[in-house]
Amino acid sequence: MPELPEVETMVRGIRPFVEGRTVKAVLRCRCSCKPISIRPRLELLAKRLVGRRIESVRRLGKRVVLGVSDGSAVVIEPRMTGLMLLSDPPDRLHLRIEWKFAGRAKYNSIWFWDRRGLGTVRLFAPGELERTLPANVLGPDALLMDAETWRERCRKTSQPIKVLLLDQRKVAGIGNLYASEILHVAKIHPAKAAGRLKADEIRRLSEATREVLEEAIRDEGSTLGDATYRTALNRNGRYQNKHRVYGRGDETCPTCSEAPIRRFVQAQRSTFFCPVCQHR
DNA sequence: ATTAATGTTCAGAA
DNA sequence: TTTCTGAACATTAA
Questions:
Q1: Out of A62, A153, A192, A204, which one is annotated catalytic?
Q2: Biggest CA pair distance of chain A
Q3: pLDDT in tens, A19-75
Q4: Residue A76 falls within a domain, yes or no?
């Protein structure tokens, strides 16, 4: 499930083989499943991109953005199971789009692979991305948040802090897995109202967010047992080995060794926490 | 064999 | 305005 660390890993993985290169072709991969959402349709997308250079590869929240030489931008949204790959997809059946580049390097293509097919690919005209995703739609990046920004974002809301962490308008990049991990490190109960967090809880939240996300990036993200996330070069992430609570219901808390991790549902998603470390 | 669960985003309802 | 629910989809486990 690509969240900030996984998307950052994809971006860093493909960047050296994409930036500065000219698009030679954009191809639909043969795939018997329902087609994913591509706007404009693939033939038109190809026409707009072929012959142009990709000047930048960056991450916007949980999205991958390819900056094109004419000022337009390709935005890839992996959602649940989407991956950006340089080679070796988990299977060929769910390859969706291939971008081919002119010239010869170690890798001359990138692919968007997506098993469930909930991912999307969109071309934004110059300036359109800034208009479509203004600050009130996409909050500040989780890695750039300081304690003061956290305080402002959490103000005056009864939203449980775990639910707030998932709200991309409040803060961009955190998903279900890292929300549980961050709150455990910060020692904050996931159901606590964000607006009632004390100053030192806000400080811990700010520090835990950076700590968890940066370490997860160093470990190239989390590859769960039944999930399909891999790096651009078909490696497993390693951060799953360091998960403290996510997916560890009934296991003893690694921090206090005093209680089993508990699972409950918030906003229709699983939340994991330690009732001792994260009291009240 | 059917059903639930998985977790991100958006449309539409409350 | 804000908050919530269901749908999009494919696969696996129960």
A1: A62
A2: 61
A3: 999 999 999 887 777 888 998 999 999 999 999 999 999 999 999 999 999 999 999
A4: yes
